[in-house]
Amino acid sequence: MLARSWITEFNRITEKRLKRSLIPTNNKDDEDVERQLQYWLRWLELEKQNKLELKDESLNDKRIQYVYKQATYALPFVPEIWFQYVKYLLFQNEEGNLQESISTLRDGGLLLNPKSMLLSFQLAEMYERDNSFDNAKDVFNKLINSLTKEYNVIASQLNELHEKTKPKTQDCDEEDDDDNVDDDNNNNNGKNVDMNGGGSKITAQVYRISLADSKQMISLEKEQKRLADAITLSYIKLMTACKRVEGIKEARNVFKQARKFEKIGYQLFVENALIEHYSDKKATALKIFDLGKKNFQTNGKFLLDYLDYLILINDVDTMRTLIQSSDANFSKEISSLQEELQLTDIDPLTRKKKEREVRNKQKSLKLLFQKYISFASNFLSLDITHSFAKKCEQLFPNDDPADLFTDRYKLDNVNIIKKDELGRGDALDIDDEELARLKRRKLSNFNEEESKSAVKSIQDSKNMIEEEEETKVNEEEQIVGPSIVALMSALPNASYFGLPSESVFNSDKLVTLFSNLSNIPS
User: What 8-state DSSP symbol labels residue 414?
Assistant: First the structure.
């Protein structure tokens, strides 16, 4: 490819909008940052294809590294650029470029993005391969500290908001109610009395907390959950790395340290239990699961993982105990949430959140019963199966009993009875290709309906405008006459004009065209 053609291709893929100046942000929702990232990645792909057909590979490698460096200068706070740069260096020469890759991340990417899990984990792996595990642990600890600091800020804001919206004490409420009653009695004076003689007072709906505070609280809780998940993942990967390099004892120390974090995720307990299990410490693994159960009694994902482990080791008695205790705990919490939903002073956002919690708890409990019933039907007895199936039907009376029955008659986790005989299938039974096709069809139907609606709206608007202006058209003089319209419609397309060597326009034929046109006054 010639240099001129390369420039043309470069301008096409970057749309002539590539910015080489610094963009001091990494807002994932910023369209400009995402657009610039895509431009740089396209340029890198163009260089890797070697469209200039350079025979010297080292020269092409220098061009690629130059673009990577320019990209890190322009987007220093986008971890993906640094990650891709280091991956390229290691791909070219893993042993020779290992130290350069480490310094690139340590002194560049991670220094500018201290809370990046992507870069932290990448650097930690390189340190481990370089037999510098102390440095790898230092990377994990710095990441955890950075995330914890941000978490503490969010937690502090959330606590302040909770204090601000905390309801008054019962005594104060009662005193206020008494004062309000006295004020009402003094102010009524025979007014605002209903048909039965009682006082009537129309007031606006008052929520326990304002909608603005509720919205802010939900936003802070989401951010807190995101950071808690990131900290949990960081502790888990530090724990597994310590197990690989230093053994089970150091992994236990990390587990002990991680448990001090107030919002540590259930995944830490599951991963630590599996580490103990594959270290031939099955009794310890069970203790870890029991310890996690105390903290996550109604966490459906943890309980499903626990049940899977019990099935793995075939601990039937503990399985039954787990299902029964989970039933009691879930039922108690669901009842508590439903009682809260009966209150009238809950704002719509909080009500929606609690309704979602109720649905999630019910779904988790149902999945636990289904998994255990399926196990019992395959490996225990029909008496146990029917006993727990009956209990499940009592808990969920509105569910179709055929769903629960056919769930234990699956073929390779596909409910073919439900699909073939009942005419409906589960979402889990649809493969990725079929699911994508259904999404495209749904989107196509939606777009078609939207298009039809838009066309109809345009046509209706056009008809209204035509009706309003119909009387004016006859009175006003037309700006463009029929002769000019005929001429313009007969003229050649713009592509026929240009340089004499490139155009196909013939002036002689134009004269003939004009002479044969109709509606031209003679």
Answer: B
Tell me the one-letter amino acid at 427: A
| Banded model confidence at residue 171, pLDDT cuts 50, 70, 90 | very low
Mean pLDDT of the chain: 81
Confidence of residue 414 (pLDDT cuts 50, 70, 90): confident
**Is residue 514 over pLDDT 60?**
yes
At 218, the amino acid letter reads I
101, with CB counted inside 10 A (0-12, 13-18, 19+), is buried
Cα–Cα distance, 423 to 454 (Å, whole number): 35
pLDDT greater than 80 at residue 186: no
pLDDT single digits (tens) 317-349: 999 999 999 999 999 999 988 888 887 777 788
Residues 6+ apart with CB under 8 A from 364: 298, 299, 300, 301, 303, 304, 330
- DSSP reduced 3-state for 222: helix
The Cβ of residue 319 has, within 10 Å, a number of other Cβ atoms equal to 21
Question: Looking at residue 6, what DSSP letter applies?
Answer: H
Cα–Cα dist 456/474, whole Å: 27
User: What is the end-to-end Cα distance of the chain in Å, rounded?
Assistant: 57
Q: Max CA-CA distance within the chain?
A: 108
Q: Taking 50 as the threshold, does the pLDDT of residue 215 lie above it?
A: yes
Helix, strand, coil distribution of the chain in percent, nearest 5: 75, 0, 25
- Is pLDDT larger for residue 435 or for residue 417? 417
Question: Could you tell me the CA-to-CA distances from 243 to 125, 183, 239, 274, 484 in Å, in that order?
Answer: 14, 70, 6, 12, 86
Write the DSSP assignment of 291-360 as a string of letters: HHHHH-TT-HHHHHHHHHHHHHHT-HHHHHHHHHHHHHHHHHHHHHHHHHHT-S---HHHHHHHHHHHHH
For the segment 38-53, the average pLDDT, to the nearest whole number, is: 91
Q: Are 221 and 353 in contact (CB under 8 A)?
A: no
Higher pLDDT pick, 199 / 259: 259
Give the Cα separation of 146 and 157 in Å (integer). Answer: 17
Residue pair 304/367 in contact (Cβ under 8 Å)? The answer is yes
CA pair distance 482, 476, nearest whole angstrom: 15
